[in-house]
Amino acid sequence: MRKKVIAYNRVEQPVLDDLKEKHDVRFFKNIDTKNDPEFLEHLNEAEGIIGLGTPVDAELLNNAPNLKVVSNVSVGYNNLNLDEMTRRNIMGTNTPGILTDTVADAVFGILVATARRIPELDHFVKKGEWQAEAIGEEHYGNNVHHKTLGIIGMGRIGQAIAQRGHFGFDMDILYHSRSRKPDAEKTFNAGYRDLDELLEESDFVCMITPLTKETEGMIGKREFQKMKKSAIFINGSRGQTIVEQDLIEALENGEITAAGLDVFEQEPVNPDNPLLKMKNVVSTPHIGSSTHETELSMSKLAGENLEAGLNGERPPNLVNPNAFDKNA
Ligand code: GLV
Known about the structure:
Elements: E1 4-8, H1 13-22, E2 24-28, H2 37-43, E3 48-51, H3 58-62, E4 69-72, H4 82-87, E5 91-93, H5 100-115, H6 118-126, E6 148-152, H7 156-169, E7 172-176, H8 182-187, E8 191-192, H9 195-201, E9 204-207, H10 221-226, E10 232-235, H11 244-252, E11 258-261, E12 281-283, H12 292-310, H13 321-327
Parallel strand pairs: 1-2, 1-3, 3-4, 4-5, 6-7, 6-9, 7-8, 9-10, 10-11, 11-12
Helix pairs in contact: 5-7
Bound molecules: glyoxylic acid.
Glyoxylic acid binds near residues 75 and 288.
């Protein structure tokens, strides 16, 4: 049976085409979901939503009386108010696993780029400023290999970052996580630390925890002050896991050396954000999982989750199991 489906912001074309054959699909991109009349009209009838970062709160749900499933094309699901969804028996799903190595590659790439100042020096060469045969110490970077990498959030992606650091760069791995990870401790010789110890001991502090009530604003002024002055801070999680203004001040005051940021408090980032004026900040537009291969795999998996949810079956990647149990 054809169902009304909303596709939002990012669903790869082959998956969108496939969905359109099976269902009545309307695609919306970069709209104001609270006020867009067409979106609200479709929402009123939609049984499923698939896409990237649809902000699902009580207000949206009040306008979606037929909704059964919201299928995220992302591993993070901080855009979903799961309490409100579960109360209404609406299932939420994500796309874990298939993006792990891709995100770890991106985060590690940003880490190396920040330490070795690659984007800044690329700009230097392309602007024709490489005049002397040998560059001077004003352009030197910092070693990555054999340094201490502190990972905050040791889930699948955190462990894939640890793998790259340990086996690829001979780094000492520290981690802080909600629970101990005995496998990671054994495989990567990773040492568990409480947050303050990790901040004090790490050369690279890498944030890769999901955004939850517990992790929101987890790294702020106090935490930046605990880090080494030589520390390089990497954020591959969500902009809201840190206090961005405090990062700006930590960089301005030389409390840490540099930052590599794939995520920002506001996305797209405001072009006036002071971070974008800093040479010692490497910025990317939330590219963690954005490769051709992985975006397609994520859309496919999200399509499977959506289909299951529309059919009243348990989706493979259900993030609020109680919503299904109540349906059953
Ligand atoms: C990307 O940030 C994701 O959550 O998949």
